[in-house]
Model the fold of this input.
Amino acid sequence: MIAGIHHASFLTDDLDRARAFYEGVLGLRINPDRPSMGFEGVWYDAGSQQIHLMALPGVERGLERPAHGGRDRHVALRVSDMQMLITRLDEAGIPYSLSRSGRSALFCRDPDQNALEFIAD
Done:
């Protein structure tokens, strides 16, 4: 019955700041098909799936998150060049941690503290 995952949605307190991360650091491109939904947001294509950012200021303010993103709710994204990702994260000053399982994977957080896992393809 379930054929796959269509998209993952993340909440953002500051859409411009989030866009700088997803577009500038991760290099994602906007999908122009997002309809008017009554709130600000952006859709990105990530392979055959999507990432949706939804502006909802203050919704998770004060929420405590575990230090390691692998122990938090997260989405896992395949990457074709792990070293390029590491270079871009380092250049942007974004902290990350390597997978504790020994896999070629790392975790970081976006500007709103949403956890992201990246797995070498």
Q: What stands out?
A: The chain has one domain: 7-58+66-120. Residues 7-58+66-120 form a domain with the 2,3-Dihydroxybiphenyl 1,2-Dioxygenase; domain 1 fold (CATH 3.10.180.10). Residues 7 and 50 are 4 Å apart (CA to CA). The chain is about 20% helix and 35% strand.
